[in-house]
Amino acid sequence: MGPAGSGKSTYCSTMITHAQTTSRTMHLMNLDPAAEEFTYKPAVDIKDLISLEDVQEELGYGPNGGLIYCLEYLIQNIDFLEDELGHDDDDYLLIDLPGQIELYTAHTIIPQLVSTLHRLDYKVCGVYLLDATFVDSAPKFFAGVLSAMSAMVQLEIPHINVLSKCDLLPPAKRRDIERYLNPERELLVGDIGSATRPKFQALNHALVQLIEEYNMVSFLPLDVADEESVEMVLSCVDNAVQYGEDLEPKEPKEFDNDDGEEL
Fold first, then answer.
1. Which of 107, 119, 144, 175 is deepest in the core (most CB within 10 A)?
2. b or e along 20-32 (b: 16 or more beta carbons within 10 Å of the residue's beta carbon)?
3. pTM of the predicted protein model
């Protein structure tokens, strides 16, 4: 499942392109009713059921209210999703979800969607995208980590954090980002302490301890121009959902030793 956060469209197209390059089947499921352009045609599209534009025009909702209405309508008509998914045991779905953080921390819509996928025997992994160009200070990094943790607690599924748009960072900035991929406690305390007022020192220590105990300070850098970076992220998702463990091995082709023709 996923991704939630910034750069999700680029993430989806990058992963599907990589899958095709490695002769792997991956289907895009669009559950963002506001999405308009796709590099790859979705196999399942919520807009075949309801669109944000129609909700805004007919009901007078704003963008956020209309988006929530669309997803609630999907949950109320979940048979649409069940019919569209099909029954292929080997389906690998990449689900494009809206990026509004409140959907993953304050509403029950996405957890209900997860429950439906589990009922249909899908293994689900959440991919949380944090814009690397946004992480230019310790307080912003903390904000990203805590929002990711909130989503993890709400969804209760395997969860992977990704720093997206690393390809857009200049070399100096990229070195700064590397400090936050797996930072030590002293680094976090020092950085956040120097960026906030002294009276918040006790709070800063408590937040660092919380992050450390839940092992949430772990991000994968994603550079869409680097195939190894893309493969690393996909491999972590595969491991989280145990992809491939239940696939039936295919019979190898047999060839005649003399002329190389298949028997």
1. 144
2. eeeeeebbbbbbb
3. 0.81
Question: How far apart, in whole angstroms, are the C-alpha atoms of residue 112 and residue 99?
Answer: 17
In the structure encoding, which two tokens stand for residue 108, read together? 């029950």
* Pairing mode, strands 159-164 and 27-30: unpaired
Q: What percent of the chain has pLDDT over 70?
A: 82
Tokens of residue 93, six digits: 């779905």
The domain 1-11+26-123 is classified under which CATH number: 3.40.50.970, 3.30.70.270, 3.40.50.300, 3.40.190.10? Answer: 3.40.50.300
Q: Using 50, 70 and 90 to split pLDDT, how confident is the model at 253?
A: very low
3-state secondary structure of 160: strand
CA 142 vs CA 134, 137, 178, 237: distances in Å: 11, 9, 15, 24
